[in-house]
Amino acid sequence: MSYHWRDGNRLQLLENGEEFFPRVFEVIAQAKKEVLLETFILFQDKVGIELQKALIAAAENGASVDVTVDGYGSADLHGEFVAEMTRVGVRIHMFDPGKRLLGRRLNVFRRMHRKIVVVDGETAFIGGINFSADHLGDFGPAAKQDYALQVEGPVVRDIHHFALSQIAPDKTPRRWWRRRLRQQTPGYGGVSRGEARALFVLRDNDQHRNDIEEHYLQAIRDARSRLLIANAYFFPGYRVLREIRNAARRGVRVRLILQGEPDMPIAKFGARMLYNYLMRDGVEIHEYCRRPLHGKVALADYEWSTVGSSNLDPLSLSLNLEANLIIRDHVFNRHLHERLDHLLQTDCRRIPLERIIRGFWWRAPLAFLIFHFLRHFPGLVNLFPEHKPRLELLDADTPELDAVPAPLQREQQ
Questions:
Q1: For the segment 334-377, what is each residue's pLDDT rounded down to a tens digit?
Q2: Buried-most residue among 24, 159, 261, 309 (CB within 10 A)?
Q3: Would residue 113 show up in a list of annotated catalytic residues for this protein?
Q4: b vs e for 170-182, b when ≥16 Cβ sit within 10 Å of the residue's Cβ?
Q5: Does the active-site annotation cover 46?
Q6: Catalytic member of 113, 135, 160, 161
């Protein structure tokens, strides 16, 4: 399942939950035909409750509503929370549910990490924002900085086709034909709405293992003027690191925005192992220090951009199920650059090379060992027997749902 570049799209960058949640809840609640939603995390906090209300409103309007959550990221949903939606016809699927051992989930790897919403086949949302209150500023110092897109136009047809295929694989010719009709009908994302060219790209553990990474690599190789990457969990493989350094060597201004106040301290520790390697050739590294960075966005030169769910680390690039939108549009590129440059100027500190060089002699062996362990980590995981992930339809009687009281909040990626 591969998709193609689509012209004629309208894109709007949504920054943090303050911009994302009101928009997506409004569009969902007004759905007339269909809502397809995938998310890594759904919590039973104030954001989860508002999403629940919007999904119930859509179902009561007569829309077909399917919600898919990850069995690790959304493991603590409570039975009554689910029942309030299933009673009105909302179907809730859990990707790769698993049993607990000593109270903890074991299905840590190969997670469904995508964040996608498609409403009536006409409007889509894609990015890195989960449905949890820690994406709102009033959550406090641990509130996350993140980005998503609202998308209208022909590329929605591809996002819609993909999201539908995940919950309704071909079982009969009749279902297949109905999906084909939806793909080909202009009302399902086929109408030109803007000027942006866009490509829907996914990463899975089958035929698209390296697609997102390959698009990053090509953009970095092609960059001639500027490269700006904001990524929460930055520990890419050697190919990406080499191309970033090569870009700086040939005169591209390369800036990385990484975590300065991480929600997971190991993310900051791992990224800092790479600083010396990159900064020696002129890569600028800035740490975002206002609150945890959760974004996964990048731009190259004056046209190429990407927004999505994929981090640049071994989990996202080699194990998790991810989805990004690749964009070629001068207007969007300029707007994303303005927002990221504002972040750089107001809430980031630039890391000086002198600070990294100081004491590097004793950190170098440790950095070498950690880098090569993490670089080979996906291969080590693949040595273990690989189970086939399953999708389970939930109801209020699903045993796991009553194992943990609600509401709950957890650390996330």
A1: 999 999 999 999 999 999 986 555 555 555 666 666 666 656 65
A2: 309
A3: yes
A4: eeeeeeeeebeeb
A5: no
A6: 113
